[in-house]
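Q: I'm writing up a methods section and want to include an example of the input and output format. Could you take the sequence below and give the corresponding predicted C-alpha cells, formatted cleanly so I can copy it straight into the document?
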Amino acid sequence: MTDPFDLVRALFQAINLRDPDAVAALYDRACIVEHIFIDDPGVYEGRDRVRSKWAAEFDQFDGALPGGPSVDVRRVAGLQTGWGWIRADWLRHVKEVATGVERREDGYSHFWIENGCIRRHRSIVSSATSPTGHAVGQPGAPHSAHSEPRRRPVVGVGAVIVVADGRVVLVKRRHEPLAGQWSLPGGGLELGETLEAGVAREVFEETGLVVDVGPVVEVFDRILMDEHGAVGYHFVLVDYLCRPRGGQLAAGSDVDDVALVDPSALEPYRITEKAQSVIARALQMKASDS
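A: Here is the clean output for your methods example:
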C-alpha cells in the first residue's frame, strides 16, 4: 500500500510537472475536491472531472517559482483528528499565460487518503499577494502554523525484529501517538545515547528481547497536527533491522501487548502503510544478506 505522506508528495510533484494524467491517477475514481483551483471555489466529483479541471489550470497558469514549478510544499503532516487525514502547507506562485500577471499564495490542503488514493482534497488560501504586490488577508482563515513558536523535533528509533522463522515483532501502543494501535517497537532517543543503543534499550523495555542492531532500514519524519494547524508531535525516525539474541518476549510497561506476526498476515493489525513498507524493505535487506 502507498504511504499517505508519500502519496501527497507525489501529487504535488505531478502538479509541478504539469501532468494531468499523473495527477488524476492519484485520485480515487469517486473523489471529491473543494476549492483547490485558482479563482475557483467549486466542488467537483469524480477522477475524470478532476483531471479535466487540472488540465485547464495547467493551460491557464505557468509555474513561476525558480526552475518552473508552481508549488513549494513546506510541510506534510498527519492530522490527529483521525486516521487517513493529511495536511500539506504550501506556497503557490504562478503566472497567468494570457496576461503574464503573477500570483503568489500561501495556504494549506487537507487530504483524506483511503486504499492508496485521494478520496477528498480541500484547500484554503491563508494569505495572498495581489498583482499590485499588496498582501491580501483571507477572512476566516485559521492562524498560520508558520507563526507558531518553534519547538525542536524529537529523534525516535524503531526496530524491525525478524526472528528465525521470518516473523516480525509488533507492539500495541499504550500511549500517544498511536495509542491503542499496533506498530513497530521503538521510542525516543535519550540525551547522550547513540542511535544503536537507543534501539536496543527501547526494544528491551517494550518487548523483553535483547537484540543485535543491524543496518538502517529507513530514515523519515512524521509530523502530527491538531485541527487548528498546531504541531502536536514531530518525530525524526530511524528504523533498524534487528535480530534477537536473548531475552523473553513479553509486553513491557509502556505497551499493552506484543505479537509475533507473519509478514504476509499484517492486515488484522492495521499498522500504518509506512510501517508495512519499512517491514518489506527490511525483509528485502535481510534476504539479500543471506
